[in-house]
Design goal:
homodimer, 755 residues, mainly alpha, 22 helices
């Protein structure tokens, strides 16, 4: 294999103008991922569907989920069409933007939505099949649920690499520039803009899905569990179908779009940074651009290998289940360490060993954050047990403890990211802090390393809600305790892997956010070149261009030159005030999404109470409750409430650019990144810990189910629901979306800044 | 009067070497404030003390409060002695710090503690007297409570101006420097370091007091109100004395130290910025240094005038009461607008009209933030009513709504601060964003303007807990419903004025934080001069000095030169990672203090439950509960728990300086400021809104007292307690303390940075 690899990669030394042959590994891996996804999907479809009632329930959930997605895509489609028209106007009317941007934007959104759609489709077909398989054996249940999760993982990485390689090929073919190095800068920054489409789609999916699922969950729990005292997933609860639909649209489709965005963002930002960091040598430049794509590609192949390592013997314990999942991820991770070494060695990227160090740092940081997340949110460790203890004195002390512990838990992940970033920077910078461009490239490639095993980590992540839904299906269909016990076992594993997944999502968001901040400057370069000969540009831009003229022209200016010309220092009030606004944006965004969940949950509670009150026979199980009405409440609420937060994310960087210029935008992005990152960890960890504190009590500790402590813990869990599944994960996207908007609108900002 | 003023201020044109005669207005105002404080104190002491039982209760509370303060000052004293020794070592041993620093540090802490002590002493003598006066008439009650609050307001500003003027006089006399402009820079930056003493003392007071009061409050409420169903301040509740003690040590002593710190910080930072912004002309420089002190001085005099406007007729309604308080503040505010115009006009500070504009902007911003705070936290408006509505569906939805609304509420104050800062900057910069030094001076002077009426705003603020304690005293002494109604009326006004006070505290913290960030650079200048001829300095510092050499020397370098040499741009990873750590510090600090309250409250709940269970006759009112034990639990918890958060605030900037140098420290301070500021608003507003949502229900809405909605609202209020009275207000101090530490340790940082 090494021989073949050497042969392919050696071509990297060919003149950059001809497409490098190593590039073809990217579409190859993409197609491979999609083929395997299709095979796993077909395999899952062949499994038995279970009893009639199981089919019926699954159908209910599937129909609800698709009805939601249809409605969601209608609204989002409208937003995308408006944005497309706006970008087209900027590109063709005002000529301040690359003409490929509107199309890149649309495809990013489309593929992101597609990834969510396929993932969800698979999940909704898999739930009853996994439940029925679990009736056979735990092993069988695991295989069905995990392979279905793998469909999602592979679809996400497959579509992402497909989108990336098609655009790279197309732009490389069509974009003309006498200067090869500049051409590559234009290509990579244009490709970055399709990241914006992916981010916007992801934000809608996460926020909308998050509101849907948590409104249903909170509503179902508060009236069902707390007031009526019926168990989770009881078919008598009118909100129970909505709750299961929510798992699919929030945890599956939402997460798919989210990680599609992260994955694309990290690869594209790194490629863009590589294009400018090494623009003095086109051969090296091409290698720096290809490296993140190739690492992604090889990661996909090794993820498929890892997936085949996930299997358990019959009668496996929950520990064995966990180690089976862990084995798959570990195999992929170890292989990627070796493979990326070989790739970089044969590709001979500049400072290839340093770059490899950055990749390893990224991988290790991701794993570490995952472990820390597990420590702070699993009931096996003292922080969550401490929170559970506080339930003995009532809901207020549970909430205070959960919030306090969540806030404290931000210490380690932030420290990990700081150390990881510093190391990946310094490795790729060759030990010299002053090599800013190379160092930033290292941060980007660390993010790529962290996400390189996404194919399998996402599989372990998406597997969770599928197992959860299987449990719901088994419960509603009355499959009996043993099946439920098995699906619970599968589900609880899902919680652990979800914690790890969140670690990767948050960690990669921070690294990618940093890389995007740097890419913003590169996009400014292109924006300035574009407007330079436009006679209508304002005074601000004219004087900016004059300053660059003195430095030898825009294209020759370094990152530091850009910083100086735009005064992006911490003493510039525009930067500081931008930071205030950025920090506030994170909180405002969380507040809006929290309140949205609150309002929707309130409607749900009232509806469930109304049905219990008005429809006789529900509680006796004689009459079916009106499930559809609950689904419809969640759907409408999600559509209504997701617009404003998303609009804010788009508008804030644009307005800031108009008012305070580049300095203000950089401050905004930096402030949002620094505070949003920490806020996201806090919310995810508090929410996770409350959830597991409740489970700890339900396991029979501190009085067990039905005790006062349990009631208090359920309230904590309910508060935590929007924390961990709506606001927290959406923040990761918000950070990146704002950067993406700033990048896409860079031409606009440099043309129309007021002050 | 204008004639006399002209005469005095004209002297400002005399050579700066001789002390400017206008300076003497500062000690004069300081003495005046202390004299009036003494008179109000004596007047209050002459009031009747009420019945024997009232005396006894007041004595209990007073003894508890002093016992706490004694213990607190012991611990804090020890920390101060250690820090003193450390600073003395830096100054006399390593010679990398000004030799006045250890002493300035100590006096700052001492005076801050003294302000808290006097305020608390007054408050604990005033409670039973105010209750007894309220028995006479509402007017009488208001007068006693408000004048006692005024003691605190005047003591704080009086001691602050005394400390400032004595040090300015002493340093001016003793510090020798051939270059008059440099001498002034040394003096003002040295004075800044006594701000660190004040900040550290304030942090201990706020955190310790906050933990004490909320542990007692939460404990008293959860067992007393919720479980046993007895009213607030019922003498059968063992935690009730501790609760009343808490109001004094947290809300009075804590707030006194807090605002002492804010007040000093704003004046000292502005003076330091003035010294460097105008160092090319010593005459102008002296004026720029004196201006903030003089505005403070005139503000004190006008606050005393305003205090005499607070009075109501007999039989006044609660609306009339509020307008009486408002009248006092408004009179002072309007007068300060006029007076500061005259001062700046006659002083002829550089760009005096612009500076005046900055002061007005500061005042208006403070008032605006206060109004917004009131809107988001008063039960008269929809946000709080919406939260109360959510109580109908239980505690979880109340908490979600309170958090969501609190997060959303950050939008307006942040926008106000951004607009206010931008305007005050641009006014003082003479319309040109590039005049950074002058603009930053404008931000400082806006903070001084915002706090200029502190004498009276703090009086209206400190009045609240006094009225609250008077109500407690009346309740425990069984003075009857009418008296309780009156004290409740007085108390509820206190809540409104407290909201305004919080607006000023938060707003001034943001502005002062920005000014301190700028002052840090000035302190670096001094630090570099000091270490320049030290042969032992490391490579980092040597190369830094060389770079300044090329720019014409450290003293001639501009703020922007410093930014460039230290690479404090948003693309420097040291800055970005510093921002991550700074943002995390805010959350970590909140988490530690939240958990401290949770742990202490838990102990308190168990103790109260134990007493109810083990001591027969408490509930029948036959046996006195063991109040002292509850006081002791809160005291011990507060002492134990306050150390770690305070240490973190001291250690973080030092370690960051060692590892990532100036760039890292600036990132740390910027990140902490941007996220801490927003976090503080969120916590204060969520807490305030929960408190008033509960009161709204207690007024008979949504089912009134005892309903399920009420129980849910009490839980919300309990969660909000540490938000609004422990973590939130402490954050304002944390932001400034970290800046102060960075400033004091600047010499250390430039000497020993590793990378």
């Amino acid at each position: 294999m090494n021989m073949a690899l050497t042969h392919i990669l050696a071509q990297a030394d060919a003149p950059a103008a001809s497409m490098n042959i190593a590039f073809w590994l990217v579409p190859f891996a993409s197609i491979l991922a999609l083929v395997f996804a299709y095979l796993f999907y077909k395999g899952m479809k062949k499994e038995e569907e279970g009893t009639d009632i199981m089919r019926k329930i699954a159908l209910h959930v599937r129909m609800g989920a698709f009805a939601y997605l249809k409605q969601q895509y209608k609204v989002v489609g409208l937003v995308f069409i408006i944005m497309f028209a706006f970008f087209a106007f900027l590109a063709y009317g005002l000529r301040i933007q690359n003409e490929w941007v509107p199309f890149a934007f649309i495809t990013g959104g489309f593929f992101s939505g597609l990834a969510g759609f396929f993932g969800m489709k698979t999940a909704t077909y898999a739930s009853n099949r996994a439940a029925w398989a679990a009736k056979n054996s735990l092993d069988h249940g695991l295989r069905v649920a995990f392979r279905s999760g793998a469909v999602m993982g592979l679809v996400v990485v497959g579509l992402a690499l497909l989108d990336i390689s098609v655009w790279f090929f197309v732009l490389n073919h069509f974009i003309e520039d006498a200067n090869e190095a500049h051409k590559m800068i234009i290509i990579t920054t244009t490709m970055l803009t399709f990241g914006m489409g992916a981010s916007l789609q992801a934000l809608f999916a996460r926020v909308g899905g998050g509101i849907f699922t948590k409104a249903a969950d909170v509503g179902a729990d508060l009236v069902g569990k707390v007031e009526a005292g019926i168990p989770e997933d009881d078919p008598r609860n009118p909100a129970t179908i909505a709750d299961n639909v929510g798992d699919n649209v929030g945890d599956v489709a939402g997460m798919g779009a989210d990680l599609y965005e992260s994955y694309c963002g990290s690869i594209l930002a790194t490629a863009a940074l590589g294009a400018t960091a090494y623009m003095t040598n086109t051969g090296v430049q091409m290698k720096a651009i290809l490296a993140p794509m190739l690492i992604g590609a090889i990661g996909v192949i090794l993820s498929i290998v890892g997936i085949y390592f996930v299997r358990v013997k019959k009668g496996a314990s929950s520990k064995e289940l966990l180690s089976a999942l862990g084995r798959g991820v570990n195999v992929s991770s170890v292989l990627i360490c070796v493979a990326s070494f070989l790739i970089l060695y044969f590709l001979q990227t500049p400072n290839w060993l340093g770059n490899w160090g950055s990749i390893i740092v990224g991988l290790v940081t991701g794993v570490f954050i995952g472990k820390i997340t597990e420590y702070f949110t699993s009931e096996a460790y003292s922080p969550t047990r401490h929170i559970a203890e506080q339930a003995k004195t009532g809901p207020a002390t549970v909430i205070i403890a959960g919030m306090g512990t969540g806030m404290i838990s931000t210490f380690y992940p932030v420290l990990a990211i700081v150390v990881g970033t510093a190391l990946s920077y310094i490795f790729s910078a060759g030990g010299d802090f002053a090599n800013i461009s190379q160092g930033l490239y290292g941060i980007g490639i660390a993010a790529v390393g962290m996400l390189s095993t996404l194919g399998i980590t996402l599989a372990t992540d998406a597997y969770g809600p599928i197992a959860d839904n299987a449990g719901g299906n088994a419960e509603m269909a009355g499959l009996g305790k043993e099946v439920r016990r098995r699906t619970d076992m599968l589900d609880s594993l899902g919680n652990t892997t979800a914690a790890t997944g969140k670690g990767f999502a948050i960690g990669s968001a921070a690294l990618t956010g940093l890389a995007l901040l740097a890419s913003y400057i590169e996009e400014l370069r292109i924006g300035l070149i574009r407007v330079a000969d436009n006679p209508k540009i304002g005074e601000y831009t004219k004087s900016t261009l004059e300053q660059f003229e003195k430095l030898g022209g825009v294209t020759e200016a370094s990152l530091m030159d850009f910083m100086n010309v735009y005064g992006v220092t911490l003493m510039n009030p525009k930067v500081l005030l931008g930071m205030f606004i950025g920090s506030m944006m994170s909180f405002l965004f969380c507040g809006l999404t929290m309140n949205a969940v609150g309002r929707a949950a309130n409607q749900m509670v009232n509806e469930v109470r109304r049905q219990f009150r008005e429809t006789a026979g529900i509680m006796e199980g004689k009459v079916d409750p009106d499930y559809a009405r609950c689904v419809s409440i969640s759907t409408k609420a999600a559509q209504r409430e997701m617009i404003l937060p998303a609009l804010l994310a788009i508008i804030a960087p644009v307005v800031m650019g108009l008012v305070f210029g580049v300095a203000g935008v950089m401050g905004l992005l930096g402030g949002a990144l620094a505070s949003g990152f920490v806020l996201a960890i806090f919310m995810a960890n508090s929410g996770g810990a409350w959830d597991n504190a409740k489970k700890y009590i339900e396991q029979g500790n501190l009085g067990g189910k039905g005790s006062e402590a349990h009631k208090a813990a359920v309230i904590g869990d309910t508060v935590g629901d929007p924390f961990k599944d709506t606001s927290g994960p959406s923040l990761n996207i918000l950070i990146k979306l704002m950067s993406m908007v700033a990048i896409v609108m860079a031409g606009f900002t440099v043309s129309y800044t007021l002050f």
